[in-house]
Amino acid sequence: MEKEVLIQMANQVTAFWSVYPKGEALESIARHIHSSWEPRMRDEMKTIIDDGGQGLAPLFVEAMKDYFKGPKTPTKSNPSGASEPKPKTGSPAA
Length: 94
Fold this sequence. Notes:
Helices cover 55% and strands 0% of the residues. By secondary structure, it is an all-alpha fold. It has a domain at 3-67. Helix 1 (3-17) crosses helix 2 and helix 2 packs across helix 4 (58-67). The longest helix is centred in the N-terminal third of the chain and has 15 residues, at 3-17. The radius of gyration is 20 Å and the shape is globular.
């Protein structure tokens, strides 16, 4: 895909999410790129950003720099607040 087309697409995604609070916008931009763009498109965008990101919206560049760092370390907390089920011990009843 041509560089100019990727930049235009990236800026359109950014324009959509730019009205949201910054943290939500950054996360949503990265999530959209991850789920909607092919790996080769993401690879090309990384090259564009590594070369200076000329023509890209600053919010997009910020979102992608964080995205390209890789996944955050997952936590083992249970979002519902409930405790994890404990494994059963002993032999089953006959």
